[in-house]
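To: structure desk
From: M.T.
Subject: fold request, one chain
Message: Could you run this one when you get a chance? Sequence is below, nothing fancy, just the single chain.
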Amino acid sequence: DLGLLVIDEEQKFGVGHKEKIKTLRTTVDCLTLTATPIPRTLQFSLMGARDLSIMNTPPPNRQPIQTEVQVYNEDFIRDAIYFETERGGQVFFIYNRIAGLAEMAAIIQALCPDLSIGYAHGQMEGHELEERILDFIDKKYDVLVCTNIVESGVDIPNVNTIIVNNAHQFGLSDLHQLRGRVGRSNKKAFCYLLAPPMSTLPNDSRKRLQTLEQHSDLGSGFQIAMRDLDIRGAGNLLGGEQSGFMAEIGFEMYQKILDEAIRELKRTDFKELFKEEIARQDDFVQDCTIDTDLEILIPDEYVESITERLSLYQRLDNCETEEELIMMKQELGDRFGPVPQQVEDLFITVRCRKLAVDLGFEKMSLKDNTLRCFFINRPDSPYFESDTFQKIIQFLQTGTNKGKLKQTGKLFLLIASDIKNMDALYRFLRAMHQFCFTDDTVTV
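Reply: Done. Structure tokens follow.
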């Protein structure tokens, strides 16, 4: 009678593990807990496929962990260790190669000859590893040189300095988890990330270290996870990869290709099964993207919270009617003050996208006061035999507008000049829409 499944440390599980556990009961509710969601899980939440709750409030009397990126330097390591031990604390030194762990412990012992140094790793016998950790808790060691085996489930309040060697070789989630091993009391804690000079590191490694250094406040796990999503990509939403850029095509293109593939299968291999749906289907385009050199966004200074901005973007994208857009704009004005021009343009963009979908545009580009509207990129599409396409041609032939049709190979492109802003774009599309459709009401 399992009703609720709780998965803690979710970032340690693979897709197969989580799905297998959930199939044990078909109606089970699943709650996943993690300080740093893996990119795939976070993307599901941002899409609205999963509910998201963020706990930002730390336990009482906790202080932010001071995080610094440093080049490996034995004098610096010695000073950091002595600073901690002289105030009665202990130190984790993370070295993630078992083969060289004892040698690294010997180096630390040579740097600090009057301190007691121990080491631990996951290939030790269970009882030996347990004894080593318990000795460290009992303060028989001042410094524990270990692998990242301590990143989960270790709570030793007296340890308030952690030094991570070769930090550039760790993932962002791992580094955040390791940093969380210190600062578990009311004492000021320190995290030192040792790595080669920033200029010599790969771009992704440099971004990871900079993210940890910038986001050291309590409750910053969500911001770090967002940055991890940005660096690594969302992975495969239908498969097992939990990070990655979907062969570098991006989520929007990935979703577009997926929708097109489903529609194509309905029209070919499964046309008998979906013949009624195909017969009444006149939505040749599912969505339209807009590329522009104008600034269209919710500014940071208007809505400071990143989670609030993400929520507003999501709500705006889900608006289906003009009434919903008007109500949401009024809400923004009430909550955050007068709506800036960038946000005004954002609302107009939503209207333009809806009009463009009705007209059959897959993409629009507005740059240098010139509008380019890209039709469906399949020359054999029934769209080009539709009344909508014929009406657009008639509209362009009236001579009362600034647009013209251009053909490149088998593909069609609509070009309009002197479109200086989003308001001008909306007026142009609105006029075309009213010409093409006898019903003057526009679904926004």
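Reply (cont.): Residues 249-281 form one domain. Let me know if you need anything else for the meeting.
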